[in-house]
Amino acid sequence: AEVKRGLQSRSGEEVADVDCPVFWIEAKRGRKPNVRAALKQAEASAPKGRIPVAVIRDDRAAAFVALSLEDFLELVREWWEPRTR
Q1: DSSP assignment string, the chain
Q2: pLDDT in tens, 48-64
């Protein structure tokens, strides 16, 4: 899939921080990034058909992903169903 960096200087409403198929990614890093605010921004901006995701990295720490439980369970369902047929 084609994945590229979005326009970081924008508000995040027109272009995600990371442009890729399926997901609308907001990326935050720093001493203590606000995970809920990042996810809320992704959810408010994601167009229909894209899954809002926040990718967070605290300074000197590994990155992690936050998404709604509903979206996570849908991804698990899509992954699991073909394996149970």
Answers
A1: ---EE--TTS-SSSS-SEE-SSEEEEEEEESS--HHHHHHHHHHHPPTT-EEEEEEEETTS--EEE--HHHHHHHHHHHHGGGG-
A2: 999 999 999 999 999 99
pTM: 0.81
Query: Rounded to the nearest 5 degrees, what angle is found at the Cα of 28, between the Cα atoms of 64 and 20?
Result: 75
Question: Are 19 and 8 contacting, i.e. CB atoms less than 8 angstroms apart?
Answer: no
Cα separation, 81 vs 83, in Å, equals 5
How is residue 62 written in tokens? 């590994």
Residue 82 is given by DSSP the state G
Q: How, if at all, do strands 23-30 and 51-58 pair?
A: parallel
Task: Band the pLDDT of 5: cuts 50, 70, 90.
Answer: confident
The residue type found at 77 is R
